[in-house]
Amino acid sequence: IIMAMWGILMTSLICTRQTDLKSLIAYSSISHMGLVVAATLIQTPWSLTGAVMLMISHGMVSSALFCLANTNYERTHSRTMLLTRGLQTTIPLMATWWLLLNLSNMALPPTPNFWGELMIMTALFNWSPWTIIITGLGTILTAAYTLHMFLMTQQGHLPKHLKCISPTFTREHCLLMMHLLPMIFIMMKPEL
C-alpha cells in the first residue's frame, strides 16, 4: 500500500515536469491508478466502491483528454505544450472542453472522480491516519499539473507559426460528449 502511494507522488512529480501533452496525460493516469491499487489492497467496502468509481470515471476523463490532445495535435502538429499555447482564442469551444475535463481530472465536486477519490482517501485514512499526508500531497500535485496543462495549452499568446488553424468539427464535439454523458449519468445516479 505504501509503495502504491509512493507511486502516486512520484508520477505526480513526473507530471509536473512534463512538456509533452500525451505523456502528461499518461503519467496522470498512472498516478490515479496508484490510488486504485492502494484501495484494492485495503479490501474494505468503501475502498473497493471508490476504486471502481475512480476506474470508471478516470477511464472516461483520461480517454477524453487523449481525444483533446489529438485535436490539438491535428491543428498544431506538435505535442509540446510550449508550442501549442493560446488555443483558446482560436478554438474557444475546445477550451471549454479542456476546462471541464481538467476540472474532472482534478476531482472537483460533483464529478465521479471526486466521489471515488474521497471514498478511497477516507478508507486509507481509516487504515492509517498518516496516509492523509501522502494523499493530500498527491491531490495538490494533481491540481498543480492539471492547471499547468490547461494554462499551457489554452492561455497565452498564439505562436506565430499557428496563425491558420482549422475550426472544430462536429465529430470532435460528439466524441467528447460521448465521454461526458456517462459521467453525467454517474453524477445523477451513482448507484448505477
UniProtKB/TrEMBL annotation:
One of its GO terms (biological process) is ATP synthesis coupled electron transport. Its EC number is 7.1.1.2. It catalyses: a ubiquinone + NADH + 5 H(+)(in) = a ubiquinol + NAD(+) + 4 H(+)(out). It comes from Plethodon richmondi. It is an enzyme of class 7 (translocase). Residues 2-141 form the NADH:quinone oxidoreductase/Mrp antiporter transmembrane domain. The chain crosses the membrane at residues 21-42, 48-69, 90-108, 128-151. It comes from the Eukaryota. Core subunit of the mitochondrial membrane respiratory chain NADH dehydrogenase (Complex I) which catalyzes electron transfer from NADH through the respiratory chain, using ubiquinone as an electron acceptor. Essential for the catalytic activity and assembly of complex I. This is NADH-ubiquinone oxidoreductase chain 4. It is a multi-pass membrane protein. Keywords: Electron transport, Membrane, Mitochondrion, NAD, Respiratory chain, Translocase, Transmembrane, Transmembrane helix, Transport, Ubiquinone. Belongs to the complex I subunit 4 family. InterPro entries: NADH_UbQ_OxRdtase (IPR003918), ND/Mrp_TM (IPR001750). It is found in: Mitochondrion membrane. It holds the Pfam family Proton_antipo_M. One of its GO terms (cellular component) is mitochondrial membrane. One of its GO terms (molecular function) is ubiquinone binding.
